[in-house]
Design a protein that fits this description.
The chain is α/β, with parallel strands linked by helices. It folds into two domains: 2-312, ABC transporter type 1, transmembrane domain (ABC transporter transmembrane region fold), CATH 1.20.1560; 331-574, P-loop containing nucleotide triphosphate hydrolases (Rossmann fold, 3-Layer(aba) Sandwich), CATH 3.40.50. It has 20 helices and ten strands. Helix 18 links the parallel strand 7 and strand 8. The protein binds adenosine-5'-diphosphate (ADP) and magnesium ion. The site of adenosine-5'-diphosphate (ADP) has 11 residues, from helix 12.
């Protein structure tokens, strides 16, 4: 873990060496300071030499200012490095999010994932600062100051060194308790954080379900848990720093007693004792810095572990091919079997889509229509059988690249807070208004967009809340067309759009010279009227509906189908 962590500092090593150099320089300043203090007590004061006293005081001020300046530069250098490391870590996490398969997200809790990434990367950042800009420099300087103490008075220094086992013991004693309480605190905090996300996400649901009270009670439990866990961590941290402080007080007292004895015996001057004391004070300030950094490092280590777990997670379901083609819009499912690790959804599904063709799949709710779309998008890999694009197996293709030629209008389209133009052109580097206009025209969205005061610049609100379901669907179609896909897929367009609008859109599409292959998937038989080919999906298998069979259904159901009723029922009636 540490190896992986410090590898993130690649490119920063010379800055870390520079920081080390600054720390050494800072420690060296202790020597003249010790000499100055000894001179004040042993010469200037006994001789009443006020000129020397003033001169030495001024020199001490300069030394302290220099030391502060060095510390400041050191801090700047190390902070710069640690912030670069945190940025790199966060960048990797973002990339990782796009590398995970649909399967990963199906299984995981997205709110918790959010909390882990946001909170833990912040904790690692705190740790890096504590470790690299406080702990490590303080440790270097503490060792060097220890050497200075040995040089000043070896006997007293050895008294101090004798205390080291006590420091080690307190650490041994506190670390496991600190670790486990920090771990519990971290989990509790993540629960709180994902709870906030949950409440914000489900505000409407809680209101219409009158679930506010029960939700508040649930969140209260999490808050109470957090109160206990965070209280315990804070208390342990205080106890830990008090214990460290007690050890250093024992050291100071031992030096006072031992040093006082030496001065009384005449083996040491008062000035030497005072200067020793001053240097011990500097050592104590380093020790305090290190002790304060320990809890942050403990918390950061736990956070780093959980982030590494996420970063190292391999996702075996992904396609790993690297081949590239220029797709013509020909796609095929060949004897595909698929399940979501439960009962089978597709048992032996085959489908051929030819360039420019308009194909419809009809089937009852839950029969696996959206699943076919997910497979075509390469979100999942079939358990058996294969998918092909232009006769190339998906297994050999770079799926991310292949998806550039696909466009899907999802069953419940996703929108983000921003303008209509930004939403329609999402994914393009620079939104092209003319292209967006043309896409909206074909998608029958132009009229409503241009009737708005701000037109394409209209802000649609978070998740598109300021639009109606039909308007969102039209924009989703426009967004799909904006990409000029080779295969356009519509999932249940009649959920939000009337059949007339869909027909007009398909008419517009037909008038284009090089229209995409179109696949419409629906439980509603009325969308098949314009299709070149219609498949029925039942019991995990696709079967092409014959023309006369189809004509029969369309004629029968064409203008008197209840859009909410499932075709299952309708078919049942007729049977
Ligand atoms: P349709 O789009 O035809 O209504 P779907 O393809 O969405 O049907 O779903 C087919 C079946 O797969 C359903 O039984 C559904 O419960 C199940 N299913 C869909 N998505 C998932 C998923 N992510 N994880 C587990 N089961 C799923
Ligand atoms: Mg569906």
């Amino acid at each position: 873990m540490w190896l992986q962590y410090f590898q993130r500092y690649r490119g920063q090593y010379r800055w870390l060496v520079f920081s080390f150099f600054l720390s050494v320089l800072q420690s060296l300043l202790v020597l003249p300071a010790a000499w100055a203090v000894a001179t004040v007590f042993d010469r200037a004061i006994p001789a009443s030499d006020f000129q020397q006293l003033l001169a030495i005081s001024a020199a001490l001020l300069v030394l302290s200012a220099t030391s502060s300046a060095l510390a400041l530069i050191n801090r700047y250098v190390t902070l710069r490095s640690t912030k670069i490391v945190t940025r790199g870590l966060r960048e990797d996490l973002f990339r990782k999010l796009y590398s995970f398969s649909r399967n990963f997200y199906d299984k995981g809790d997205r709110n918790r994932l959010h909390s882990v990434i946001v909170q833990d990367s912040e904790r690692v950042d705190f740790m890096s600062n504590a470790l690299v800009s406080q702990m490590l420099p303080s440790m270097f300087t503490a060792v060097l100051i220890g050497l200075v103490l040995l040089y000043l008075n070896s006997t007293l220094a050895i008294v101090l060194i004798a205390l080291l086992p006590l420091v080690v013991l307190t650490n041994r004693w506190f670390q496991p308790a600190l670790k486990s309480s920090v771990d519990r605190f971290r989990k509790s905090f993540d629960t709180f954080s994902s709870g906030v996300l949950f409440v914000v996400d489900t505000i409407d649901l809680a209101r219409v379900q009158s679930a506010e009270q029960s939700e508040l009670a649930r969140q209260d439990k999490a808050l109470e848990d957090l109160r206990i866990k965070s209280g315990r961590v804070a208390w342990l941290q205080t106890a830990y720093s008090l214990a460290q402080n007690s050890v250093s007080i024992v050291g100071s007292v031992a030096i006072l007693a031992g040093g006082g004895y030496a001065v009384a015996n005449g083996t040491m001057t008062l000035g030497e004792l005072m200067s020793f004391y001053v240097v011990v004070g500097l050592l104590r300030s380093r020790a305090t810095t290190i002790a304060a950094a320990v809890p942050l490092v403990v918390l950061g280590v736990q956070a780093l572990k959980s982030l590494n777990l996420l970063l190292d997670q391999e996702d075996p379901h992904d396609y790993r091919g690297r081949g590239r083609i220029s797709p013509t819009g020909a796609f095929e499912l060949r004897n595909v079997c698929f399940d979501y690790e439960r009962e089978p959804v597709l048992t032996d599904a085959s489908l051929l889509l030819l360039p420019g063709q308009h194909v419809a799949i009809v089937g009852p709710n839950g029969s696996g229509k959206s699943t076919i779309i997910h497979l075509l998008c390469g979100f999942y890999r079939p358990r058996k059988g294969s998918l092909f694009a232009d006769k190339m197996s998906y297994d050999d293709l770079d799926i991310v690249e292949l998806r550039r030629s696909l466009a899907v209008v999802q069953q419940e389209p996703t929108f983000f807070s921003g303008s209509i133009l930004e939403n329609v052109a999402y994914g393009a580097n620079a939104p092209d208004i003319d292209r967006a206009r043309e896409a909206c025209r074909v998608a029958t969205a132009q009229d409503f967009v241009e009737s708005l005061t701000d037109g394409y610049q209209t802000q649609i609100g978070d998740k598109g809340v300021r639009l109606s379901g039909g308007q969102r669907q039209r924009l989703a179609i426009a967004r799909a067309l904006y990409r000029t896909p080779m295969l356009l897929i519509l999932d249940e367009p009649t959920n939000h759009l009337d059949v007339d609008s869909i027909s007009r859109f398909l008419e517009n599409l037909k008038q284009q010279d090089t229209g995409p292959t179109t696949l419409i998937v629906s439980h509603d038989y009325r969308v098949v009227a314009q299709a070149d080919q219609v498949y029925g999906l039942e019991a995990g298998q696709l079967s092409e509906l014959r023309a006369e069979e189809l004509a029969h259904w369309v004629k029968l159901l064409g203008d008197r189908v209840d859009p909410e009723a499932s075709p299952e029922q309708e078919m049942g009636h007729e049977r």
